[in-house]
Amino acid sequence: MALDQHEVPDIVVGRLPVYLRALSAMKSGGKQYTSSHELAEWLGISSAQIRKDLSHFGEFGKQGTGYSVIGLYDELRQILHLDQDWPLIIVGAGNIGSAVASYTGFSHRGFRVVGLFDNDPTKIGAQIGGLTVQSNNEIPQFVADSHTQHAMITVPAQYAQQVADILVASGIKAILNYAPINLNVPHNVHVEYIDPVLHLQKMTYYL
Q1: Measured between alpha carbons, how far is 190 from 203 in angstroms, rounded to an integer?
Q2: Do 33 and 119 fall within a single domain?
Q3: Distance between CA 36 and CA 179 in Å, rounded?
Q4: CA–CA gap between residue 121 and residue 99 (Å, rounded)
Q5: Region 31-46 average pLDDT
Q6: For the whole model, what pTM was predicted?
Q7: How far apart are CA 138 and CA 33, in angstroms?
Q8: Are residues 167 and 112 in the same domain?
Q9: Where among 79, 105, 129 does a domain terminate?
Q10: Parallel/antiparallel/unpaired status of strands 190-193 and 134-135
Q11: Given this model, what pLDDT does residue 59 score?
């Protein structure tokens, strides 16, 4: 790679999965080659921006030929460390957690949901998405045994920080947080936030 991973702007890293998704669709359609201009048309991102983003990680494509769809797809998977299987746990077996646990689209995109947890006695022991809901008290041992580094928080906001503390203490290094609250975690733990209301509020500006 051309740069150390910490020198690549976060906004650039955030676009790589978008490129990967487009390349996956092209690959499924049997397309062999593409270009930054074609990707730009697919994604609504300028071709110059696409070329600049990719230049952070090396030289891709050939003059006059463009990018090999499979080649660039594989390269981006390696850059994102998706060329391996990542176990993932979900904390919160409510509506969102149950829906995510039942979602079948993770396995072919680098992730495998291996555990579902909750602190509600009425949910513990239930079968959801092929998983048995376990108590939050079992998280530390489960994380250690499964070597899991990714977790998803789908609990109400008032419990999210408590859950995050358990996850961090258990060795989780990456958290996807659905609760509408900012988490306080150590600098070596990466957190991404999903709050649909924030996106809806942004969208109303354009209406």
Answers
A1: 26
A2: no
A3: 36
A4: 19
A5: 93
A6: 0.84
A7: 48
A8: yes
A9: 79
A10: unpaired
A11: 86
Residues 116 and 184 in one domain: yes
Helix and strand numbers (H, E) in the chain are 8, 10
Q: What is the CATH number of the domain that holds 103?
A: 3.40.50.720
The answer on pLDDT for 189 being more than 60 is yes
Mean pLDDT computed over 126-144: 97
> 6 — phi, psi (to 5°)?
-75, -10
Of all helices (H) and strands (E), which one includes residue 45? Answer: none
Same domain for 162 and 73: no
- Say whether 186 sits in a helix, a strand or coil: coil
Q: Looking at the structure, do residues 120 and 145 belong to the same domain, yes or no?
A: yes
Task: Answer yes or no: do 68 and 90 share one domain.
Answer: no
Residues 72-78, mean pLDDT to the nearest whole number: 94
Q: Is 127 helix (H, G, I), strand (E, B) or coil?
A: strand
Query: In terms of domains, do 90 and 61 share one?
Result: no
How far apart are the C-alpha atoms of 178 and 196, rounded to whole Å? 9
Per-residue pLDDT, 85: 87
Domain count, the chain: 2
Quick one: average pLDDT of 80-100? 93
Q: Which of 15-19, 109-113, 125-129 has the lowest mean pLDDT?
A: 109-113
Whether residue 33 is predicted with pLDDT greater than 80 in this model: the reply is: yes
